[in-house]
């Protein structure tokens, strides 16, 4: 049904988050629901650590440590082609990512906020964040980085977070859910949405979330949707 | 499906636009390739499989959702180690989409496997009747 849009009400957002967290607890995936006692709002939260490889071009090895660190920031967003350069070495770096899922009543969609810092506490810059977007999304990112990921104040915590822009969420959700009412009911909106946008910013959901909806064999789904 | 640098496509591909190694499965439902037993249906007991099985292809049925163009050929035999990202690039090439246009793939029409997920694993988890049904959607996901 072209043009039919599927919006997420806040009540359903909370229900989907609750189901999502239950499954996360079953598989030890680390998501939790946090509430803000002042505002009464809640959001999903998860922290995890990622190891990133940094490639250091050989001519920088002779410079002192401070300069090397400066140059590392400048090079981190480039593709790893320079690993082939003679004498290039790479160092591993651990980055702590914190992901939050909040509800936007103006867009009627969930929104993904996140922040990232190195183990010494230094936050990643916007350039570094853009540079670490998964390779399969780089072409789209480079067409419009400013409408992909920018920095905004977290609506509940009031601290600067990166946010993945939510303006097209309803569009892709509606396209995937299609016109089947039963499919709407049986699909966890958060699972569908987060599995789509999470990988853009380093967040991958384990496959077992795919079974979050009530069991539905592919054969049944085929017949229902053909 | 071949990516840059991989082995050349099989001889005599059918039609244009598919010279990158994907095999077209017959629409009747029989898997393409030599007559050997097809992959076991999902859920069958984990029997001992020879190492060569890892190279067997799985049948994938691609279905369009939303306003996405429909592929003329929907059934493909895909290597188990092909990733979602590889499959996305293949479909985009087949549909002649630009690099910056986005395409997403879903299992159970409700979950997007991550780009590095292998289709072989997806087949084991979500395949039935000897095939893996995947829905694909051309859409923007942010902005």
Automatic annotation (TrEMBL), chain A:
GO cellular component: cytosol
InterPro entries: Atg3/Atg10
One term of GO molecular function: Atg12 conjugating enzyme activity
Keywords annotated in UniProt: Autophagy, Cytoplasm, Protein transport, Transferase, Transport, Ubl conjugation pathway
Pfam family, one: Autophagy_act_C
Gene Ontology BP annotations: autophagosome assembly; autophagy of mitochondrion; ER overload response; protein modification by small protein conjugation; protein transport
Key word Nuclease present: no
Localisation: Cytoplasm
Protein purpose: E2-like enzyme involved in autophagy. Acts as an E2-like enzyme that catalyzes the conjugation of ATG12 to ATG5. ATG12 conjugation to ATG5 is required for autophagy. Likely serves as an ATG5-recognition molecule. Not involved in ATG12 conjugation to ATG3. Plays a role in adenovirus-mediated cell lysis.
Family of the protein in this entry: Belongs to the ATG10 family.
Protein name: Ubiquitin-like-conjugating enzyme ATG10
Source organism of this protein record: Taeniopygia guttata
Automatic annotation (TrEMBL), chain B:
Principal location: cytoplasm
Membrane topology, from the record: Peripheral membrane protein
Entry keyword Disulfide bond: no
Pro residues bias locations: 34-43
Gene Ontology biological process terms in this record: autophagosome assembly; autophagosome maturation; autophagy of mitochondrion; glycophagy; piecemeal microautophagy of the nucleus
Statement: the UniProt record of this protein carries the keyword Transmembrane helix: no
Gene Ontology MF terms in the entry: Atg8-family ligase activity
Stretches for region Disordered: 1-57
InterPro entries: Atg12, Ubiquitin-like_domsf
Pfam family, one: APG12
GO cellular component: Atg12-Atg5-Atg16 complex; autophagosome membrane; phagophore assembly site membrane
Signal peptide span: none
Keywords recorded for this protein, A-Z: Acetylation, Autophagy, Cytoplasm, Isopeptide bond, Membrane, Ubl conjugation pathway
Listed PANTHER family: AUTOPHAGY PROTEIN 12 (PTHR13385), UBIQUITIN-LIKE PROTEIN ATG12 (PTHR13385:SF0)
Job of this protein: Ubiquitin-like protein involved in autophagic vesicle formation.
Family of the protein in this entry: Belongs to the ATG12 family.
Known partners and oligomeric status: Forms a conjugate with ATG5.
Protein name as catalogued: Ubiquitin-like protein ATG12
Organism this protein belongs to: Taeniopygia guttata (Zebra finch)
């Amino acid at each position: 049904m072209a043009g039919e849009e599927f919006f997420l009400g806040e009540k359903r957002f909370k229900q989907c988050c609750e189901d999502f967290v239950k499954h996360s607890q079953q598989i030890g995936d680390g998501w939790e629901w946090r509430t803000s006692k002042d505002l009464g709002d809640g959001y999903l939260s998860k922290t995890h650590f990622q190891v990133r490889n940094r490639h250091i071009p050989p001519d920088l090895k002779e410079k002192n440590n401070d300069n090397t660190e400066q140059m590392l920031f400048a090079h981190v967003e480039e593709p790893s082609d320079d690993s082939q350069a003679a004498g290039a070495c790479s160092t591993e770096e651990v980055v702590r990512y914190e992901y939050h899922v909040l509800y936007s009543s103006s867009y009627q969609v969930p929104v993904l906020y996140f922040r990232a810092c190195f183990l010494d506490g230094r936050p990643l810059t916007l350039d570094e964040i853009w540079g670490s977007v998964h390779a399969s999304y780089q072409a789209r990112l480079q067409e419009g980085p400013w409408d992909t990921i920018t920095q905004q104040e977290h609506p509940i915590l009031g601290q600067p977070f990166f946010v993945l822009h939510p303006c097209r969420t309803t569009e892709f959700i509606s396209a995937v859910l299609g016109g089947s009412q039963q499919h709407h009911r049986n699909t966890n909106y958060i699972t569908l949405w987060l599995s789509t946008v999470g990988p853009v910013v380093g967040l991958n959901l384990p496959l077992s979330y795919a079974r979050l909806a009530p069991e539905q064999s592919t054969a049944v789904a085929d017949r229902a949707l053909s | 499906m071949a990516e840059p640098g991989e082995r050349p496509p099989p001889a005599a591909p059918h039609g244009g636009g598919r010279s990158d190694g994907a095999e077209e499965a017959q629409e009747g439902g029989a898997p393409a390739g030599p007559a050997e037993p097809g992959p076991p249906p999902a859920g069958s007991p984990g029997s001992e499989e020879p190492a060569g099985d890892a190279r067997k292809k799985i049948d994938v049925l691609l279905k369009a959702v939303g306003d996405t163009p429909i592929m003329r050929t929907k059934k493909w035999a895909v290597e188990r180690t092909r990733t979602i990202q590889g499959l996305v690039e293949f479909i985009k090439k087949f549909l002649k989409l630009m690099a910056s246009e986005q395409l997403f793939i879903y299992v159970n029409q409700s979950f997007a496997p991550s780009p590095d997920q292998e289709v072989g694993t997806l087949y084991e988890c979500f395949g039935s009747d000897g095939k893996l049904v995947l829905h694909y959607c051309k859409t923007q996901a942010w902005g």
